[in-house]
Amino acid sequence: MDKLQVTGGRRLDGELRISGAKNAALPILAAALLPDGPVRIGNVPHLHDVTTMIRLLGRLGASVTVLDGMKVEVDPTTTRDFVAPYDLVKTMRASILVLGPLVARHGSADVSLPGGCAIGARPVNLHVDGLKALGAEIEIEGGYIRARAGRLKGARIVLETVTVTGTENLMMAACLAEGRTVIENAAREPEVVDLAGFLSAMGAQITGAGTDTLVIEGVERLGGCHYEVLPDRIEAGTYLLAGAITGGRVRVRDVRPGHLDAVLVKLREAGATVTVGDDWVEVDMQGRRPRAVDIRTAPYPAFPTDMQAQFAALDAVADGVGTVIETIFENRYMHMLELRRLGADIRIEGNTAVIHGVEKLSGAPVMATDLRASASLVLAGLVAEGMTEIQRIYHIDRGYERIEEKLRQVGADIRRVPG
Ligand code: UD1
């Protein structure tokens, strides 16, 4: 299994291009099961999770062709099988996103329960209850969600918790239901809006995307289209932080700056000069040590949980004391323990981490535990003295395209070695 070796101490300086968003590409690929004809999706990031979703679509019988430049063509008309098996779902929870499209389009779906994961229990009850409200009959049996339905019927669904993939699953299913569906307390993440854009391009009738109330007028069929996935705001935020933590300057290109607002506020607080263009953002620390910042995660447009671990790394070397409060996933603190192995001073009390910035971290072997946790270890490695060797980097490859190449492009000393 590959490892990443990072030698700290280089101030990053340069520019890099941001890929398509993983969390938009995954639901969009799942939604490609819905239409009556082929769709072409561009700006798809080359990531393990995307490969897993493509394999899953293939297992269901859809014809998937990966064209040059990460364009993916999906012809769903050959879909014959409606089972998302455990061996795929266990490697990627987002496999649950085929549940809504399969039930809505084929009246049948057997999707393995994802099970627990390193960042908390992560239940799927809201996906299941919402589909029941739309008229599906669902049983949980043998570790599988078994859903059966005739044509779904529009309904009013009030989500008890804001859930991103839950909102997406129900929005996709409602597109082919009979009549109107209203989803209240819907997630407002840009990736939900991007999925709504893709569904609309196929002929769906959706209003309210980006607000907490989605209204979907069901249609009888959806057709093919061509769509480009939006840029990855979490990838962009991670590289901006890489610039800030090293006291350097990093510009990210091909982004939607507005989607980064909550992150940019914190980078400014940390002392960075932030410049925003039409489709780029630059962070410049001018050689300064960052100041500690307080973080509290919450659904969009508040501060994203997927950037929490990276800011914990920043606080670990910042001037002052920062607190990190995680309100979305109760166990998302595994990276704190690994950061401590590098010399970080972190105390965890309930769902709050109190981080006293230290002058220096020192390189050590560490283990990636989940996707964003791994990113925080890479960031810490960029400033730690000596070499940090990160194991289990398959977590990173799930969500960051060629992370070592992109970081090398802006001056980092990082390499992938076979382990
Ligand atoms: C998505 C993102 C993930 C991000 C997360 C929160 C994708 C593929 N993944 O994950 O990167 O960290 O949003 O922004 O887009 N919950 C329930 N019942 C449910 C569903 C969720 O109680 O049926 C709870 C969860 O336990 C959690 C909260 O709702 O506390 C939010 O989770 P959710 O938004 O569903 O996360 P994901 O969609 O899995």
Folded structure, characterized:
With 419 residues, the chain is an alpha/beta fold. It has 14 helices and 24 strands. The chain has helices at 22-31, 48-59, 86-89, 99-106, 125-133, 164-175, 190-201, 233-245, 261-269, 308-316, 334-341, 371-383, 394-399, 403-409; strands spanning 3-7, 13-17, 39-42, 63-67, 71-75, 83-84, 108-112, 137-141, 144-148, 156-158, 180-184, 205-207, 213-217, 226-228, 249-253, 273-276, 280-284, 295-296, 321-325, 345-349, 352-356, 365-367, 387-391, 413-417. Helix 6 links the parallel strand 10 (156-158) and strand 11. The protein is elongated and about 65 Å long. 52% of the residues are buried. The model has no long low-confidence stretch (mean pLDDT 95). It binds uridine-diphosphate-N-acetylglucosamine. Uridine-diphosphate-N-acetylglucosamine is lined by residues 23, 26, 93-94, 122-127, 161, 163-166, 191, 305-306, 328-329.
